Amino acid sequence: MTTKRLVDQITKKLKTERGKDIKSASNKDLYYVITSVVNDVVNGDWMVTQDKYKKKKQVYYLSMEFLVGRLLESNLLNSGILERANEALLKLGFQPQQVYEQEHDAGLGNGGLGRLAACFLDSLASLKYPGHGCGIRYRYGLFEQRIIHGHQIELPDYWLKEEYPWETRKIDQAVEIHFGGNVHMHEKNDGTLEFKYENTDKVMAVPYDIPIIGYRNNIVNSLRLWSAESTEIDTDHLTSQTDHYYHQLDHKHSIEQISGFLYPDDSHFEGKTLRIKQQYFLVSASIQHIIKEYKKNNRRSLKYLPDKVVIQINDTHPSLAIPELMRILMDQERYGWDEAWKITTSVMAYTNHTTLSEALEKWPKGMIKDLLPRIYMIIDEINERFCKGIWFDYPELRDKIPALAIIADDQVHMARLAIVGSFSINGVARIHTEILKKKEMKDFYYLFPKRFNNKTNGITHRRWLLQVNPNLAKLVTDVIGPKWIQRPNDLIGLLRYTKDSSFLEKIGQVKNENKRILADFIHDRTGITIDENSIYDIQIKRLHEYKRQLLNVFHILHLYNELKDNPSLDITPRTFIFGAKAAPSYHLAKEVIKLINQVASIVNNDKDIRGKLKVVFLENYNVSLAEKLIPAADISEQISTASKEASGTGNMKMMMNGALTVGTLDGANIEIRDFVGNNNIFIFGLNADQVLDYYQNGGYIARDIYNTDDRVKRILDQLNEGAFGSQEIEYKDIYYNILYHNDPYFVLKDFDPYLEIHELVEQAYRDKNAWNAMSVTNIAHSGKFSSDRTIQEYASEIWKLKKY
Ligand code: 26V
């Protein structure tokens, strides 16, 4: 499509679809019209692709979260018309970015796990793999964060307020989900058992499909999001009671609540009935759909399901898929237990995303029994058989049965269910998988060594380099050609330019330009003026104790104290930038947000320090904000307590944009270090073995550091005495947590090494040429962290999928 044709189409659609001409059209009108152009372009390919997939093996990626962000610009990019769309918009007198920003950022996820799912969809389609996402169409996405007087305030994110132009409602493919009621068992004439469900609550799951466009390959996959609606009114139970009408409305309302909102707490597991309803709703709708499709497209019996279907469960959240598939195979399709179990365990694969014990899902068994009686019976049977198997076949593990059983202490342990019911169990970075095998899931690894495997996470380089950093992408293409776009590993070719000072200078210029743009944005948003020549030191991720935003704050406070003591101290100016949402009920995390904002207002307004430090907390961190920040980062803060961050993916996004990592030996930082080498990354602090050793054997006393390190004492006392608060002692919880709960995340222990490494950063930054060479080395190695590599590994090693 030429630019001229695009201009014509846009003008025509403005008239026919919006009733506007170009003079009266707004950015919003242009947004809808261009979306409609993209839909016209891809709809044909979408049908053809889905038709061609029919006979192929397909993967269904089941996830409670898909954090897709905005789609227009990436859809234009992938369908190969971004440049012309930009030209057309400019011709018509519109700023492309302003038009793209009209789209509501779809925040149907909390953080890493949900964004990973979105990157995977992009890679699946771009690599021509038959794959679909299955999720929930929450009416409210992750809350919008406002900072008021330094505090986090949560506002509902009603992202569907205006029409969402990427989705298509498919009412003809709605399925029914049953909750509650009773199960009756009958023996049939042939001696087999029949299960009948009575008095269940029925919910209709209505699918909305979103096209997932492959990169310039005419492939269009689907993301199917289910929405809960009430079924038709049950006329058998009509009564003449006056409140009947209100009961009906109440009932309808409570059903619609199932897809009402995304749970915003990704740190502490809480056994909420609505959440398990959401999980079963996703699982039952998706499995019913999968079986229907299989039957439609294949003549063979469901015995051969594993030849055509593989289901990846994204963390334990969709692990009820295992008993749900068993239920359908046995109760509806009349398979016996053994056959159904063989099919199920050949189809299901499970990815673990965290070892934090607080986040592990354990549902009260009574809750599952009441809400899903038949599913509970099946879980119970899976558990019985599993435990018996250990008793007879692994006598050496007999005394460990309580720690392995799926149902124990009146709770259903979802990770155990997922492990027992899947043929593959993977972690998301090398160290994470090793910790699963050697510690967290040691006995399961002993039982099922072949099931365990690693799939180090990745990110889509199309969105996270090509789209968000076009100037860098162009510079890269100028020297190594465009092949890296299809084959991100080719970025390694940049290594040849790490000594080319004219190229390095250009790399520096691109970064400076990105930093200038971000400075303007920050000024617009916050009124804060930042020094464009300062080091942009960025930490963007959910707020969690283990991610240690507090360690970063302590570094800032230390620099501030030093500058107060000696205002003429010669340091390279720094801008510390934070973006972080705290779970609404996570008190300590909210305290840290308050502290960052308080420190920002003190530091930014203190004339004594002559603008050498600035602290910026940007509210409402989400995918779109990440896209603005990442291209401008000099330093990427990846400073979790070693062993706690399963992988991290922000680390990969920032390295791909030339930022240097300050990080612990945790998650994928380790693999980044292995590729770029110790000279191109700033590693500090305890390693995972040391941390785990302290947890196991003790020996760490935070108070000793407080007593011996004056810098630490000064900062903690300032917190405790209210130096950064108002009259009342605001940060006593932080103070107490460190001194009285013995600093569970080793902030004080890693404080000194952290300061030291930042001094090295500062020295390194003085030599621009050397810095840019390090930056290029990072970009060069970032191809290994493309989600194309990850998906390739899932496809060949777990899913056994062929490219279309
Ligand atoms: C946990 C929970 C707990 C119960 C209720 C709701 C809820 C929702 C989300 C989560 C997510 C925890 C797991 C998670 O996000 N893990 C992150 O996964 C990333 C992708 O693999 C990885 O890069 C991060 O290191 C890991 O923290």
TrEMBL record:
Cofactor(s) this protein requires: pyridoxal 5'-phosphate
Matches recorded under Pfam families: Phosphorylase
Catalytic activity: [(1->4)-alpha-D-glucosyl](n) + phosphate = [(1->4)-alpha-D-glucosyl](n-1) + alpha-D-glucose 1-phosphate
Superkingdom: Bacteria
UniProt keywords, alphabetically: Carbohydrate metabolism, Glycosyltransferase, Pyridoxal phosphate, Transferase
EC number annotated for this UniProt entry: 2.4.1.1
PROSITE patterns: PHOSPHORYLASE (PS00102)
InterPro entries per record: Glycg_phsphrylas, Glyco_trans_35, Pyridoxal_P_attach_site
NCBIfam families reported in the protein's UniProt record: P_ylase (TIGR02093)
Functional summary from the UniProt entry: Allosteric enzyme that catalyzes the rate-limiting step in glycogen catabolism, the phosphorolytic cleavage of glycogen to produce glucose-1-phosphate, and plays a central role in maintaining cellular and organismal glucose homeostasis.
UniProt family annotation: Belongs to the glycogen phosphorylase family.
Name of this chain's protein: Alpha-1,4 glucan phosphorylase
